[in-house]
Amino acid sequence: MPATTLDPRTALIVIDLQKGIVAMAPAAGAVVARAARLAEAFRSRRAPVVLVTVAGAAPGRTEQGFRAGTLPADWTELVPELNRQPQDHLVTKRTWGAFTNTDLLDRLRGEGVTQVVIAGVSTSIGVESTARQAYELGFNVTLATDAMTDMRAEAHDNSVQRIFPRLGETATTDEILALLGAAPQ
C-alpha cells in the first residue's frame, strides 16, 4: 500500500549507511543522497533521526559468515553526507535488526514515536529485519524504497514487492517529504 500519512510523532531510521557497507553497495550514491534529504527534512521538523551502524554479527555459524575482526578501521563510520547532528540518536547493532539488544525501542517509546520511516542498506537484511521488528512492536512502518539498496537487485525487489507490503506502506523519498510537509507539527 502506498504511504497515506505520517503520524505526528514519526522517526526516521537510517540503516547501515556507513563507510564499510556503502563502499560495497550498488547505487549507494543516490541512496545516500536521498537518505540525507530525509534526515535534513526530519531534523528541520524536530522529528527524531536515528542513525544505525553495524559493528559485528550475531553469534552462530552461517554459510556466509561476517566477522568484525577483519574489517577496516573506518568500517563503522557514518558517511559524511548524513551530516550527523548532536540531536541524532546513534545505534550500534551487532545483529541484522536495529531493535535487538539496543536502546532503540526505549528511545522511540520515550519520545512518543508511533511511526517509523526506514531507509538504508541492505534492503533484504538490515532494512527488512528492522522493519519486521518495528511492525511486530506495534509501530506504523513506512519504507523509503528509493532510499535503500541491496547487494543483489533480486533481493531488493523481493523485499519491496513481496515483504514490505505486509509490514507497512512504501513510498519514494519525494512522497515521504510531501507527507512530512503536510503532517501537523
UniProtKB/TrEMBL annotation:
Residues 10-175 form the Isochorismatase-like domain. One of its GO terms (molecular function) is hydrolase activity. Keywords: Hydrolase. Signal peptide: none annotated. InterPro entries: Isochorismatase-like_dom, Isochorismatase-like_hydrls, Isochorismatase-like_sf. It holds the Pfam family Isochorismatase. It comes from the Bacteria. This is Nicotinamidase-related amidase. It comes from Roseiarcus fermentans.
